[in-house]
Structure formats: C-alpha cells, structure tokens
Design goal:
With 266 residues, the chain is α/β, with parallel strands linked by helices. 50% of the residues lie in helices and 15% in strands.
C-alpha cells in the first residue's frame, strides 16, 4: 500500500489519513483507490471498533484532483467507465463507494473540505472540526455535476435552504458557522483535533459491539426512508435483538459501568 493514505491502529481505533499534503489531499486516481482499501482493511480487522478519517495538514481534502480532470476528463470520462461505477455505488443508498465499512466513522476535519472532499466528510457518521476547518461546495463554480451524494447528504446535515446556498454560491463556511448549522458536532483547537476525535472513538469502542453495529445500521437504513419506515426499521432491529441477543446479566454489568462513567463526566 502506498503512503498516499495511511492507516494506524491503537486502542481499537483506526486512524486513516489522506496523505497528499502538497496537493491538499485532492482525490487523485491513486488516492481514490487507496482510501477504500485502507477503510476496508480497518473494517475487516477484529481489533478495530471505530474509524477516524482525517487529512495531512494543511487540508482535509480539496476534492477531486482537478489537474487530472483538466488534462483528460479523468474519472468523469464515460468511456473509461470509472466514474459511472463510482456514481452507481454512491447512489445505492450507502457510503460503500468511498468508505466501505459497517463500523462508525468519525471525520476529523483539520482544514478545508471542498466539493468532493466535503462529500467525503459527509459520508462520515459525524464530524469534529478544527478551528481551521472550512467547508465549500464548488461543483457549480467549476462546472461539474456532483455524483457522490452532495444533494442528498448536505441537506440532511444543514437543511435544504442552507445546502442550496452553499452549492449555488460556492462560498466557504467557517468552522463556527458549520457548528451553528449542524454540519459538525464539535469545533476544537487545531492541536486538540485528533486527541478529541480519538477520545470520542474510545467512548464508542466501549459500547457493546453487536448492539452498536445494529444501532448504526438502523440509523443509516432509517435515514434513507420515510419516518414510518424508520420506525419499522427500529422495531425489526429490536425484535431481532430481543429474540437472539438479549442478555440480562451483561446489561446489568454494563449498566454499572455506565453509572461510573456518568459520575466521572458530570
């Protein structure tokens, strides 16, 4: 595996880092190939419970590599059948095209997340941002139609009117505004970004693995349908757990642990 993307595992947390800092981690063909491979490796590792995705400073991801695009159309050329396959997977109702994992993914946004880079961030389950983070959708500005879920995932995050404003103007949104709009969950000092994201990941990793996986799957499936369908998804998941996995003794053990953790966090 090339060092164009890096994988580090510790304390049941895998940190995947986009590593083209000289190109602001733009998604070249090589990086688009390396990233899913590393994420899939983390997904297959039984020692990994959570994935943290970040970029090598100074950027999170500047989006599709426009130098490749400008030379020959790159992955957007239909005769190469590269982008159509990626687009089909992106619109299959999952994040499998970019982040092929059933495990939780925290995006640690350390700098700009632009266009395809913003879409990549939106494929994470939630985002933590450095104070240096900036977000923009410049698809319309450069004349490229989105294909990785921008018009689906951005409105889910910030609402349809704010999403339209971001996409139609191409204007950048700073970290504080992103927090106000609900695009990110937390904004922290730049040097604290990875430690903070890791701490959240460790909290997640302490959960029961089976319950966590089913809960995440229920959120993801429910978000793709109507409210009525989402209720049905949760009901099915509960009945399966009740029938196959409920363990009163384990619940009691975990309950006591939750009490102790709560006391430490108050």
């Amino acid at each position: 595996m090339s060092d164009i993307a890096l994988l580090e595992v510790a304390d049941r947390v895998a940190v995947v880092t986009l590593n083209r800092p000289e190109a602001r981690n733009a998604l070249s063909a090589d990086l688009r190939s390396a990233l899913p491979e590393l994420v899939a490796r983390a997904d297959a590792d039984p020692e990994v419970a959570v994935v943290v995705l970040t970029g090598a400073d100074p950027a999170f991801c500047a989006g599709l590599d426009l130098k490749e695009l400008g030379r020959n159309g790159g992955p957007l050329q239909t005769d190469g059948a590269v982008m159509p396959a990626e687009a089909d997977r992106a619109f299959s109702g999952s994040r499998a095209s970019m982040l092929p994992t059933d495990k939780p993914v925290i995006g640690a946004v350390n700098g700009v997340a632009v266009t395809g880079g913003l879409e990549l961030a939106l494929h994470c389950d939630f985002l933590v941002a450095s104070e240096r983070a900036r977000f923009a959708d410049t698809h319309a500005s450069v004349g490229v139609q989105p294909a990785w879920g921008m018009t689906v995932l951005l409105p889910q995050a910030v609402g349809i009117r704010r999403a339209k404003e971001m996409s139609m103007t191409g204007n950048f949104v700073d970290a504080a505004t992103a927090l106000e709009w609900g695009l990110v969950n937390h904004v922290v000092a730049h040097d604290e970004l990875l430690p903070f994201a890791r701490s959240l990941a460790v909290d997640i990793a302490s959960s029961d693995a089976g319950t966590l996986g089913t809960l995440l799957a229920s959120y993801n499936e429910g978000s793709r349908g109507t409210v009525t369908e989402a209720w049905q998804v949760e009901g099915r998941a509960f009945r399966t757990w009740q029938r196959e996995s409920m363990n009163p003794a384990e619940i009691e053990r975990r309950r006591l642990g939750v009490i102790e953790r709560g006391r430490s966090q108050v």
